[in-house]
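Hey,
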Amino acid sequence: MAVTTAAAGLSLPAHDDPQLTALLGGDLLHELSYAFGGPFHVLLPDRFDANTAAFRAVLDEAGTDGHLHYAKKANKAAAWIERCAVSGTGVDVASAGELREALGHGVRGENIVVTGPAKAGELLRTAVLQGSLIAVDAPDELERVIGLGAALRPARLLLRRRPPAQPDSRFGLDDRELAAALLRCRDAAGAVRMEGFSFHLSGYAVQPRADLAGELLGHCRRARELGLPADRISIGGGFAVDYVPADAWDRFTREQRPEHFHADKTFADFYPYHSPTAGADALRAVLAARPAGASEPLAALLRAAGVRLLLEPGRALLDGAGCTVFRVQGVKEREYGIVTVDGTSLSLSEQWFNSEFLPDPVLVPGAGRSERIGGQGPFPACVGGASCLESDMLTWRKVGFPARPAIGDLLVYPNTAGYQMDSNESPFHDLPLPPKVVIDRGGDRPRWRLDRHPSS
């Protein structure tokens, strides 16, 4: 196959991961591919445990009273909720189904935060009965919560602030609505317990989060003057994940152009796959930042005010906690290769947001091939799904594989647990949804089981 410079691909390998490397070097993935007869996801709950522990360590280091809630929308697998129940980690839910899943896997109602706009009646009713904390998004929702609190038991709530820097956001209360909501909570007396405020910012910048957190501390002071508890704030999620090394990301962003993608595809933007400040380190940076107009860092302000910090990370708790495996079904050779796998791009959600999941898939040769692929040189190829849609591309980019993929080889997409696995899944063409396989470590070898979520 004659390869031009532009068609040769633009590599973007993920960070080295010894746990993933060990999986790639054994027979387990091929055995599972044979057993399931289609793509599947691998879950690593011990990595989830390590990530939650890292966030808690930062809170302790900063002397900050805080509580962590896993944002369930990032991945619906039961494995993560099982770990939350054991460790006391809270869960952030936005539907009645998510709330039932969390409760059913042992998470206590008071450790659940209910977010999302215009919440369904069943969700609000169950949340009030279970003592969950409800982030109220609108004045009419506040009235519904007050009504339920008066009829059932006092409702716990936060008032969600619309970020002043994002005035077009459809979420949260503006200045006028917030002031009116505080008075309404005061007048509702025993029907509600107004515990504080929340927000969620788009993007991953540190300083805007610290600034808005500082503003919420001021709202807590005003709420207390009205006799309301207001002893906690939630800053939501928005803690980046660092997928790839800095030099690889810099090269990609500098050199990528349409010729590096199948059909000269272009994209408006990509997730920032490299972040110098990510995960628990991003929380550390937020706590160390001085909010606008403040003379002390956020951590000191929280301590002085006696305010608890609530966090709702999703992707950041799933960093390194899973991968997605497809089997090669065919390979075409043009001026570059077109690999077709046994699933669809519905199992990698970025493509369906007109973007691309960029970390390179890893080629795992089939039986008897591993010793023969070394030194073959790069084989640039994009990766398509098994449907009859031109747009069904798992990887538009021409990846420089170490050899020509062959039928029966596996492509392993690394670090897909955060949002990639089920945000847009569909049994299109009557293809089954990829099952989720949990790898439990302990003893002399890893063991596997199917995830216990009913639709996994």
